[in-house]
Amino acid sequence: NFPNPLFPGLFGPFVEAVPTGISYFDGRLLVALITGVPFPAGTSTVYSVDLKTGAQAPFIVGLKTAIDILPIKERNDTHYLVLQQASGDGPFFPRAGLALHFEVGGGPPTALAGCLTMPTSMTFDEKTRRLYVTELAGRIVAIPIAHQ
């Protein structure tokens, strides 16, 4: 549970985190967690879970509505793509969804696309270097990804 900073009297003092996306990478799970109504900015997090020890720690923090995470390995580097269902600082879903690129887990993101309508999932085609994002209404959006 996380403190509800927006409307504690209306929706209760806490919001609960729900796992929405999971990826395996390098002996650990990366788990995207979205918090509940009113979806306060900064409370959605991607956690890293060590499969041998069960230890878990925040990996990417300060998100609004993270629903998926993809690690992309290139040469000796790993980059991370995070899909957010909505953006903005207001309650609920005030703006379009985002595909974000992180050079490192805790670093600042670069927005790859900010025009997504209720995105639901993503996958990366290494051969064509395209990120494919599905949307709730059934549309599939292809986003070209440059070499990093």
Structure write-up:
With 148 residues, the chain is mainly beta. 3% of the residues lie in helices and 57% in strands. It contains 1 helix and 13 strands; from the N terminus they run E-H-E-E-E-E-E-E-E-E-E-E-E-E. Strands 3-4-5-6 form a 4-stranded antiparallel β-sheet, with no helix packed on it. It starts with a strand and ends with a strand. The model has no long low-confidence stretch (mean pLDDT 86).
Secondary-structure blueprint of this entry?
Elements: E1 2-3, H1 8-11, E2 14-15, E3 17-25, E4 28-35, E5 44-50, E6 56-63, E7 66-74, E8 77-84, E9 97-102, E10 109-116, E11 119-125, E12 130-135, E13 140-144
Antiparallel strand pairs: 1-2, 3-4, 4-5, 5-6, 7-8, 8-9, 9-10, 11-12, 12-13
In short:
By secondary structure, the chain is mostly beta strands. The protein has one helix and 13 strands. It starts with a strand and ends with a strand.
Task: Please supply descriptive tags for the structure shown above.
mainly beta, 1 helix, 148 residues, 4-stranded antiparallel beta sheet, 3% helix
